Amino acid sequence: MSFSSDVKKELCAIECESDCCQRAEAYGLLYFGRAFGKHDISLLTDYDFVAERYKAAIRFLIQKEPECVLSKSGKTTISVENGDDRMDLLNELGYTGSETSLRILTSNIEYECCFGAFIRGAFLSCGIVTDPKKEYHLEFDVAFKNKSRDFSEIFEDFPASPKQSDRNGVNIVYFKDSEQIENILTVMGAQVSVLEFINEKIFKDVRNHVNRKVNCDNANIRKTCQAAAQHREAIEKLIQSGRFDELSPELKELARLRLDNPEMTLSELGANLTHPLSRSGVNHRLKKIMEIADKTSK
Fold it and tell me: Which site from 17, 28, 97, 198 is most exposed, i.e. has the minimal number of CB atoms within 10 Å?
């Protein structure tokens, strides 16, 4: 089972508390199905629980039982074969059947509570949400441009701004922002899936933070090793040239400490001196040692 199918299964277990919300969900299921018009009202789905939800929506609206066919590939087609039944469904939802374009009728989304039910129905019919372990992506695959445009406008007063694209002739209304996806899952009623989504998001944020810190630490370690190698080279050059004894006692102490402890940071070197020194002070003295060594080689 995928994350998307788990979300749909959770949504199909929700019991609508009012007729208005049940009607809104039924509208979303039918309107965004494979076909919704006087010649064909049907849905094609991979999930038997979505098929049952679609059949329940039809029974709720016109008290009729649709046809159900299971293909060899495991997909289920639910359809309203009787023409009069199709007209009854269209009329029940505010259409005459003579429309050239079936636009979204907000009269079927009567109250604020119905918005989530309508989105839930749409998602069950044509929605997909990617596993948050992989990426943040939620989309609705809508058959016609006017439907996708109307659907996008439905979100105007909701804290989520959809984007639109065309994929092989199918209009896609999609969301990439993780917080917006959380809001949509929440308003649809997928509370368990929201918690899973948030937990995975937190895990990814923590993992990314740790990775950034590790990368930063590794970069600092490389810098420390490179600087230590340069320091050691300069000090050994002074020893070989016989000029090491010309250094001041403070520089000699630091030079010996650096030779014996190549892994130490500048701050650690400063803390281990007889008279502790700040990081900048240690850096200044090491630069002075390297300058003397540089003059020695010229």
Answer: 17
Q: Which residue has the tokens 């495991």?
A: 74
151-193 pLDDT tens trace: 999 998 888 889 999 888 889 999 999 999 999 999 999 999 9
Q: How far is CA 41 from the centre of its chain?
A: 34
Number of H helices, E strands in the chain: 11, 8
Find out whether 285 and 269 touch, Cβ atoms under 8 Å. Answer: no
Q: What are the residues facing 167 on neighbouring strands?
A: 170
Walk me through the domains of the chain, giving residue ranges and CATH numbers: 3-189 (3.10.28.10), 207-296 (no CATH)
Q: Quick check: 298 pLDDT over 60?
A: no
d(CA 91, CA 221): 73
> Are 41 and 80 contacting, i.e. CB atoms less than 8 angstroms apart?
yes
- DSSP E strands, 12-100: 35-36, 41-45, 67-70, 76-79
pLDDT, position 297: 61
Find how far residue 259's CA is from the centre of its chain.
50
The one-letter amino acid code at 103 reads R
Residue 25 to residue 150: CA distance in whole angstroms: 17
Q: Could you tell me the pTM of the whole model?
A: 0.72
Query: What is the DSSP secondary structure assignment for residue 245, as one 8-state letter?
Result: G
Cβ-Cβ contacts under 8 Å for 1 (sequence gap 6 or more): 9
